[in-house]
Amino acid sequence: MSDTEPPVSGVGTALVSPRRATALIWLLPVAAALLGVWLIWRSLADASIAVTLSFDDGAGITPGQTPVRYAGITVGHVSDMSLQEDLTGVEVTLAINRSAEPLLREQTRFWLVRPQVSLAGITGLETLVSGNYIALRPGEGPPRTRFQALTEEPRPDASGPGLHLVLTADSLGSLTVGAPVFYKQVEVGSVQNHALRRDGSGVDIHVLVEPEYRDLVNRSSRFWNASGVNIRGGLRGFEVQTGSLLSLLRGGILFHTPDEGAEPVLSGTEFELFRDHRQAAAGLQVELKVPEPDGIQAGRTEIRYRGYRLGRIDRLTLDPEDPTRGAVATARLSPEAESYLLDDAHFWVVRPRLSLEGVSGLDALLGGPYIELSPGREGQPRRSFVLAQQPPPEGTEGGLLLRLQSPSLGSLNRGSPVYYRQFQVGRVQDVLLEREGSGVEVRVLIDEEHAHLVSSRSRFWNASGVDVSGGLDGIQLRTESFMALLAGGIAFSTAEGGEAVANQHRFSLHSSRSEAEQQGVLVDLYLPSARGLKVGSPLRYQGIDVGAITELELAPDSGGVVARLRIDREPDRIARQDSRFWVVQPRLGLLETRNLDTLVGGAYLAVDPGRGPAGRRFTALADAPVDAGTEGMPVILEAPRLGTIRRGLKVYYRDVPVGVVAGHRLANPADRVEIELRIDPEHAHLVRRDSRFFSVSGVQVDAGLFRGVRVDVGSVEALFSGGIGFASPSGDTPPAEPGARFPLAPRAEPGWLEWEPGLSPDEQR
Fold first, then answer.
1. Percent of the chain with pLDDT over 90
2. How high is the pLDDT of residue 725?
3. Looking at the whole model, is its pTM more than 0.85?
4. Residues with Cβ < 8 Å from 282, sequence gap 6 or more?
5. What are the domain boundaries of the chain?
6. In terms of Cα–Cα distance, which of 415, 426, 497 is closest to 460?
7. Model pLDDT, residue 57
């Protein structure tokens, strides 16, 4: 049959397709690989963390048995132990569960817990059954796996629960760590730690009052050592005092809170730990400096308040700093006197005294001198005072306290009377020497019912002795009362139209009535020269006459002139220690012309009032201060040299004055110059952190062979006087902070003056 023969009829053609069945056998390796990865991950997740501890010795530690516990839960165990390389201790390797990894920080502490029995108590009792274990207390810091173990359990942190207090004592006595703290014989806390002070003056004892008892302690609480037996005796018999039997064996501390409504305390508050209950009852220790210790006896001299005994002198020693200044007395006062011991409290010696004012201190004739307390009513708590020889003025409970300033004291003393129309209305409360030694301050107390007699227009003068005044018309003698003539005193008068004054108001104390009746306050001003000035030349503030020169004389050292000024208007505001005075004279020149008004009226003095305490002696400035009466943002420029820059030059922005050069100085080290600018407050927003400062003094010439000659001249004012300019490239940069520093360029770089930052004058800093 040929190849072209047709197929046999009725027989179909077979079609062959490839077989595509999945090979399941390959899934087994993949599943095995995934299972292996999972097992490895589980192994790593469950693997313990190796931690190394250093102990002094390995007693009580067994590898594979000693557990590691935190909060009663086992978080690991000891896996290995070996000697250290230097043989000074042992290294213990711990296997810590992965779940406890957050506990392992730099400040975490480890220690071995074992049973201990002492008079302070029994600790670690649970280890008698379960065996020793290593405890940990977590701390802060970065992760860490190597630690130095502690020899005992660390004391609770002061930030932990409860009230943590510090008791100060001269010695520790029989107190030990763990000794109880009792309140009404109930244990409410324990001694946590004790340490010797660095200067060796005593010990600090740290105690913990449990949280549920912390409200029992407040500012009035008194702590004392209840350890041992306290025996006192004398001709009248013996007194034996002990605490509880527990405190007798273990040592302990007792405390009592007499005033339950007193201010509560916080952790870290310090209390004094008294030797015994008797000393704690006296309670407050006060130090008195005694310039004249005659008659003062330790253990006998009492301290009283209106006849009530508050305490007595415990110890009297010579002043350790300078024995010639007297003695130092240590007194113990009843706790009820604590509220009296403020800054203005006074202690003085009561002795029999006979004076023009009468007889006082008769009750001290039989019992000897004693110390009287005048309670304080203002200020902070205080524990050190000076024992005065005279009582404070009467009537300190109420009245108007004034402060009078005078060059000298005269015959005034504490207790000297204050008169108004020869009627006594107050007394001198105290006399103090000013710190700089330039005068004295006399504090007077005006009786409350007469306080309305004092106003801002009152004038005070020393009424001691005789006031003599006169001239060609005759001589006038004036005195106050006979008592003031003998014992000294102060008098005052008040003109109409004044305003009421408050406590601590300051007045000048004039030497005589005639001086006081001349209105105003006298001050002395030192000048290198009086050129252009004369008696009668005015003192001005912001163009208003506030005083005048009343006297000109050579200075004692012949190095200048002293001008005596009488300030008539606002003397309390102007006569301040930091006020600034200067001479205003005409200035004529090519660079500067000012003060032309003095060509007609003559030179005068100007003042910029300060804000400090009152002052009476000043030194004039060489020129008007740049910042007088103005405020501005300070900016510091740094330059290699000063050049033509000087104080008073203006600072320009787009040729508009926006500030002034306030001063200049050498830097430290002296390798550059610092120039201080003051930018006007309304223009301070123009100074940005990327601003550029440059000198605009004179004419700037830029020439070249191909670019020709360029001459830059600022404003006419800057051409003659010079100045400093600045430009800011962008308004997106934050404003500069006060005191910001910038380099000073010798000239403006190309393009600086073309910057257009678009700064808004309404921008808030």
1. 11
2. 92
3. no
4. 311, 332, 333, 334
5. 46-148, 163-280, 283-388, 400-517, 521-619, 633-754
6. 426
7. 87
333 - beta bridge partners? 284, 311
DSSP state of 640: S
Predicted local distance difference test score (pLDDT) of residue 317:
86
Q: How far apart are CA 407 and CA 175, in angstroms?
A: 59
Average pLDDT along the chain: 78
Task: Count other C-beta atoms under 10 Å from residue 46's C-beta.
Answer: 10
**735 close to 709: Cβ distance less than 8 angstroms:** no
Q: Is 240 helix (H, G, I), strand (E, B) or coil?
A: strand
Of the two residues 123 and 424, the one the predictor is more confident about is 424
Q: Are strands 580-584 and 604-608 parallel, antiparallel or unpaired?
A: antiparallel
Residue position matching structure tokens 């204050």: 418
Other Cβ atoms within 10 Å of 393 Cβ, number: 23
pLDDT digits (tens, 9 = 90+) for 226-270: 875 554 443 334 444 455 555 555 568 999 887 777 788 898 888
DSSP 342: B
Q: Residue 762: pLDDT band by 50, 70, 90 thresholds?
A: low
CB distance 273 to 168 below 8 Å: yes
Contacts (Cβ under 8 Å, ≥6 apart) of 37: none
C-beta contacts of 156-163 below 8 A and 24+ residues apart: 156/192, 156/208, 158/267, 158/268, 159/267, 161/211, 162/189, 162/208, 162/209, 162/210, 162/211, 162/214, 162/267, 163/189, 163/208, 163/209, 163/211, 163/213, 163/214, 163/217, 163/265, 163/267
- Do 563 and 603 form a contact (C-beta atoms < 8 A)? no
Average pLDDT in the 734-763 region? 84
Q: Which token pair is 190?
A: 């324990």
Q: Which pairing describes strands 109-113 and 133-137: parallel, antiparallel, or unpaired?
A: antiparallel
Please state, as a whole number, how many other Cβ atoms lie within 10 Å of the Cβ of residue 163. Answer: 23
12 falls in which pLDDT band (50, 70, 90)? low
**Residue 513: enclosing H or E segment and its boundaries?**
helix 513-517
**How many Cα atoms occupy the beta-carbon half-sphere of 672 within 13 Å?**
10
